[in-house]
Amino acid sequence: MKGGKDLASRRPYPNKRYVVACRKVGRKAITGFLIQAPDDVRWFSATARWAIGATIVVRHVVRYEIIDSDYDAVSDDMLLWGPTPKALGNWPSRWPDFTAQWSAYTAQWTPANAQPCMEVTPTGRREGDVRDTVEGGLILYREERLGLPTIESGRLLEKELSVRHRLPEIKSAFDTRG
Fold it and tell me: What contacts 102, CB < 8 A, 6 or more positions away?
């Protein structure tokens, strides 16, 4: 996958300062992209380079480890890990045990504090395994590690919840099964 050719940066959320990489298909701002991969993938990484004001390039590397093999999909969108009521799929919680320590630190913890995210200026609100290289008050390089639970692929197809109406469609997935 190559930025500019296969990927685009878009703003799918009401907060237009939040930019997301997505498949360069159409004009709709989608939250991320899908990859069809072989069943034996246990880890993978994603590297993004972001140009800030056309003068500064920052780099964000996320190293993912798939921590179980219960289901057929994974997502770093932590909103997809939670349980849902029967009317919305009746999905069980897929929150890994290690996330309990994050909420133990502070009552104000939310998934936004731990979901992989590049920031230009340090906020001090990040949880998990995050290492930043800061120069002149700006984060020039961020490396994160995140364990991903598997989830049911049906969670990616359900469009009824507002958090899912901008998910990518299966037909737009990159296929790496080669």
Answer: 109, 113, 114, 127, 128
Q: What is the Cα–Cα distance from 169 to 70, expressed in whole angstroms?
A: 22
How far from each other are the two terminal CA atoms of the chain, in whole angstroms?
14
Q: Is the pTM above the cut of 0.85?
A: no
Rounded to the nearest 10°, the torsion over CA 15, 16, 18, 20 is 120
pLDDT tens digits, 47-83: 988 888 888 999 999 999 999 999 888 888 888 888 8
User: Taking the domains of the chain in order of start, what are their residue ranges?
Assistant: 38-162
Torsion angle of the four alpha carbons 110, 10, 123, 62, in this order, in degrees rounded to the nearest 10: 80
Structure tokens at 54: 């056309």
Q: 59-70 b/e with 16+ CB inside 10 Å = b?
A: ebbbebeebeee
- Give the tens place of pLDDT for each residue, 92-119: 999 888 776 665 555 566 777 788 888 8
